[in-house]
């Protein structure tokens, strides 16, 4: 694995000017496009609770997705190293955000991965590797709120 400092360059372009810029809170759209060279554009907006477009990704969706994806990538890596063959992995993650007149922040994310491993694999080790993945996850190590994991492991004959 590559070690050292890594840099990520992202372009976010606001496309919500409806003719009068930000002349008033209701005068502008929240839509934007997220771009990284060589990758598909991600259509973004605000959460609908904040006058955004429900059909587009919002920052809160992306944060929860980032935590889930980072955990999954570490988990698969650790399983491969341990000789546990993962056949399927699906996570239904949920992020909880507090929004008050004086504060807005995430209070937690709960990952709920449902993992299917090949029969004969060590189920107890597969469960333990979720803890190890959490300890290694770059996103979990970067946020100031808890990310919990409620994993379900099952086996399947191949």
UniProtKB/TrEMBL annotation:
It comes from the Bacteria. InterPro entries: KH_dom-like_a/b (IPR015946), OsmC/Ohr_fam (IPR003718), OsmC/Ohrsf (IPR036102), OsmC_Ohr_Peroxiredoxin (IPR052707). Pfam families: OsmC. PANTHER family: OSMC_OHR FAMILY PROTEIN, OSMOTICALLY INDUCIBLE FAMILY PROTEIN. This is Peroxiredoxin, SACOL1771 subfamily.
């Amino acid at each position: 694995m590559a070690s050292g400092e890594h840099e990520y360059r992202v372009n976010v372009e606001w496309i919500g000017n409806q003719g009068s810029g930000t002349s008033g809170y209701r005068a502008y759209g929240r839509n934007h496009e997220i771009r990284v060279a060589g990758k598909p554009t991600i259509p973004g907006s605000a959460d609908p609770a904040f006058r955004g477009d429900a059909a587009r990704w919002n920052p809160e969706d992306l944060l929860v997705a980032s935590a889930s994806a980072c955990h999954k990538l570490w988990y698969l890596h650790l399983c491969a190293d341990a000789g546990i063959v993962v056949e399927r992995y699906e996570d239904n993650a949920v992020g909880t955000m507090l929004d008050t007149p004086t504060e807005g922040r995430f209070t937690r994310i709960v990952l709920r991965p449902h993992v299917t491993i090949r029969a004969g694999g060590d189920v107890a080790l597969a469960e333990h590797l979720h803890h190890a993945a959490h300890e290694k996850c770059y996103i979990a190590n970067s946020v100031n709120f808890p990310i919990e994991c409620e994993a379900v492991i099952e086996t399947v004959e191949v």
